[in-house]
Amino acid sequence: METATVSALDLLTTPDGIADPYPLYDRLRQLSPVAGYRDWPPGTIPGADEPVTAWALFTYDQVFAATRDAATFSSRDPLQEASSAPSLMLVNTDNPKHDVERKLVSQAFSPRRVKRLEGWLNRLVPTLLDELGDGVVDVMQFAPEIPTRAMVRLLGLPDGDHVRFRQWANAFMLSSSLTPEERIASNTEMVAAFANRLAEHTARLAEHSPADDVDDAEDLISALLRAEVDGQRLTPEEIVRFCVTLVVAGSETTTFLIGNLLHALAREPRITERLRADRGLLDVFVEETMRLDGPPQRLFRIATHDVEIGDKLIRAGDWVALFFGSANRDPQVFQNPNVLDLDRPNIRQQLSLGHGLHFCLGASLARLEVIAVLNAVLDRYQTIALTEDPGTKQTASLLTHAYVRLPLRLS
Question: Is the pTM of this model over 0.85?
Answer without folding.
Answer: yes
